[in-house]
Amino acid sequence: MIETSLDGLFTDSSPTVSPTTMAADAAQQLRTPKTHALVVVNETDRVVGIVTESDIVALIAEERTELTVAEFMSSPPVTTTPETSVLTAAKLMRESGVKHLPVVADGSYRGLVSASDLVPYVSRRRLEITWQGEPFSASDVTETDDPELQVAD
């Protein structure tokens, strides 16, 4: 596992919406490729909620499309900071049952990190490296059952 902070890993250009955005408009934004969540920010750029694809699916199933984002967003959202380690973020996602974490610094929204962003850094496999003269060589790849290293789907 590569231990690093989230700084530089999160998507800082992820779309945001206001609490007054209509559900249909949020759904339209979620149709954009690689957009799986919308962070809800208020007029002072404070994160107040999050809307995911599954929230929109639930609305459609309930035939409740004439709502504003504020009426169905997940709030308060589980957030993190750029200084948070990848492992800590993965644990937070698993424990909270979420796949996306808004990244907040100095009280303002900075970006979004998703479980898929963490996968290259949090692996169920551990590579054991031993020195056998020059160069380094990989001698073994072993499974780990350590639940601390698993990211929720």
TrEMBL record:
<feature type="domain" description="CBS">
    <location>
        <begin position="73"/>
        <end position="129"/>
    </location>
</feature>
<dbReference type="InterPro" id="IPR051257">
    <property type="entry name" value="Diverse_CBS-Domain"/>
</dbReference>
<dbReference type="InterPro" id="IPR046342">
    <property type="entry name" value="CBS_dom_sf"/>
</dbReference>
<protein>
    <submittedName>
        <fullName>CBS domain-containing protein</fullName>
    </submittedName>
</protein>
<dbReference type="Pfam" id="PF00571">
    <property type="entry name" value="CBS"/>
</dbReference>
<keyword id="KW-0129">CBS domain</keyword>
<dbReference type="InterPro" id="IPR000644">
    <property type="entry name" value="CBS_dom"/>
</dbReference>
<feature type="domain" description="CBS">
    <location>
        <begin position="10"/>
        <end position="66"/>
    </location>
</feature>
